[in-house]
């Protein structure tokens, strides 16, 4: 598989982390198996292939917008494909599209339908290369921002930044005291702006920190990760890891090829 990553233009860097592209050539009778991992961010995927892709048995549109994930899912696609994706910042559904983020949590939406018939897919299909596709997506996103830009409320943005900086370690009680808001108010605003409760988003941030430590082999034994990421014990860390990946840390190391971060290929036994 051939992977390529493209940085967004400066005016989109508060909304888009990066664009990614993945290409694969396989036999007509082969399939590619992917597992998506909860990572705290929504995104867009556009795929050109000789057949449809399916997520947990549900056929996916050729270009779709997906929301926050609270658990792992499996995707099966033809082995030959050309894909470009947008990896958004956590608040993108609200900020770019004006959506209540919670409406798309654990779900996806045909992007062509959302854009009211603007033929984004046709433009992408006729683009000469990955960079041209990224430019088309940038133009489309900027158009949406200019039309819909709904900046996060300052309290929600502050809470988001505090949780990310602490890698999920901030106390929710301390956060509410700093913001002078009730638990219910913080929960409602975070659900609308991010698509998850602040507690669940914090859990995903901590999981991602542990996953990065596993990826980088910066540990001697799994209990080191559990300790450094402040899990109650190793079994708590393993349960949390399996919730968001469907695999134990040992199984993940053994059976996963992570070409695209948080969108890895599941090696078939």
Walk me through the structure.
This protein is an alpha+beta fold. Helices cover 41% and strands 22% of the residues. It has eleven helices and twelve strands. The protein has helices at 92-97, 111-114, 120-125, 130-148, 154-165, 172-179, 183-194, 198-215, 222-228, 234-245, 249-255; strands spanning 2-6, 16-24, 31-36, 43-48, 54-55, 58-59, 63-66, 73-78, 81-88, 108-110, 256-260, 263-266. The protein has a six-stranded antiparallel sheet. Strand 11 (256-260) and strand 12 form a beta hairpin. Helix 5 crosses helix 7 (183-194), helix 8 (198-215) packs across helix 10 (234-245) and helix 9 crosses helix 10 (234-245). It is globular, with a radius of gyration of 19 Å. The mean pLDDT is 92.
Query: Structural class per helix/strand content?
Result: alpha+beta
* Inertia-based shape: globular
Unreliable runs:
none
Indicate the proportion of strand residues: 15-25%
- Tell me the span between the first and last alpha carbons: 19 Å
Q: Strand tally, please?
A: 12
Largest sheet: 6 strands, antiparallel
Percent of residues in helices: 40-55%
What is the mean predicted local confidence, pLDDT? 92
Q: Give me the strand/helix succession.
A: EEEEEEEEEHEHHHHHHHHHHEE
């Amino acid at each position: 598989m051939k992977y390529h990553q493209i940085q967004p233009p400066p005016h989109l860097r508060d909304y888009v982390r990066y664009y990614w592209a993945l290409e694969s050539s396989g036999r007509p009778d082969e399939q590619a198996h992917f597992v998506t991992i909860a990572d705290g961010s929504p995104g867009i995927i556009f795929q050109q292939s000789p057949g449809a892709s399916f997520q947990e048995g549900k056929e996916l549109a050729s270009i779709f917008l997906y929301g926050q994930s609270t658990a792992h899912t499996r995707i099966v696609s033809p082995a030959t494909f050309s894909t470009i994706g947008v990896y958004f910042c956590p608040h993108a559904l609200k900020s770019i599209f004006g959506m209540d983020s919670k409406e798309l949590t654990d779900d996806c939406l045909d992007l062509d339908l959302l854009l009211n018939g603007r033929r984004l897919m046709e433009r992408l299909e006729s683009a000469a290369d990955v960079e041209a596709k990224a430019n088309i997506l940038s133009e489309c996103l900027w158009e949406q921002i200019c039309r819909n830009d709904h900046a996060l409320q300052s309290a929600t943005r502050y809470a988001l930044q505090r949780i990310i900086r602490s890698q999920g370690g901030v106390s929710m009680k301390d956060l509410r005291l700093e913001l002078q808001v009730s638990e219910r108010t913080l929960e409602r605003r975070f659900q609308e702006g991010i698509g998850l409760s602040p507690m669940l988003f914090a859990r995903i941030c901590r999981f991602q920190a542990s996953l990065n430590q596993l990826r980088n082999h910066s540990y001697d034994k799994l209990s080191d990760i559990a300790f450094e990421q402040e899990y109650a014990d190793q079994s708590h860390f393993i349960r949390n890891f399996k919730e968001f990946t469907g695999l134990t840390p040992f199984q993940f190391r053994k059976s996963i090829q992570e070409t695209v971060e948080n969108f890895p290929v599941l090696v078939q036994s």
